[in-house]
Amino acid sequence: MSLPIWRISSLALCPIAILIVGCQRSQHSPDEKYYLIATNIKLPYWEAAGAGTMRAAAQMQVRAQFVGPDTYDPKAQQAEFQRVLAQKPAGILISPADPELMKPDIDRAIGQGIPVITIDSDAPSSKRLLFIGTDNYKAGHVGGEVLAKSLHGKGNVVLLSMPEQANLRDRLRGYQDALAAHPQIKIVEVLDIRGSSGTAFDKTMEIMEKRAAKVDGFACLEAVACPEVAEVLDRKKADKVVVAMDVDPLTLQWIQKGRITATIGQKPFTMAYFGLKMLDDLYHHKIAPLDANWAKDPFSPIPTLVDTGATLIDKSNVEAFLRDLANVKQ
Asked: Which CATH fold would you assign to the domain 136-265?
């Protein structure tokens, strides 16, 4: 029995079609769109996350957009989330600047059947499905250990942070617990820089002009502060221990120059890249009910936390890190 001519044609053409678009129709629809929402989105850290979002979107042939205020503005981020939610997106990645402020909106999205995943900074009291990012307590603990070792177990330190963010609170706890093993090291102040590099510069300058002798080290719990700390110390020709966060190009330059002791590098590209792929899977393979307490379910189809890892960078390995980074970008 011979096959109908249309069957023969389709079978013959299928290997060619696989090379182009595949024999089956894509599971993605034209109205399927994903969003990443953050604050301070012009920072190199968030530009890396945006690149991860777009890389994943291109591979999956879906639409994606990275949005949010250019400054640290939690209320503007909330307004952006509400605007995005009104468009009925396929899924949302968000790094909540203020987790309690964002909780009702995240819960509303989940209630409408829209999957929400937090990256970088969590909103653990919300109904978000999972968190993808650094183990922030561990990162803070590592930073505290580096700080203690560099201070030889004694001295006064100032921390620069943004206390509203859950991830930075976790890093602060890590620092506090690490330094608790060194009773001769005191955290004399935790400065709230409100996401502003200018504020970090001004507060550090004030410290160096009024009580430089009483401060032996600085630790920055986020990306924008320590380049400013290093700039002030360089102007004042002052030697202090400085432990930074993230791999801002200026941070790496100051490590090369010896003004920053070390930094803890995160993986924002990975957070967003993997997060978008998870959103896509959740959109096409729905879990029900979406607002179930999956964190306590031993048979949950999704994890509660995905730790993307971190890297300690100091004078001993900064050159190798920069070479590796350049090779990746080529």
From this structure: Rossmann fold (3.40.50)
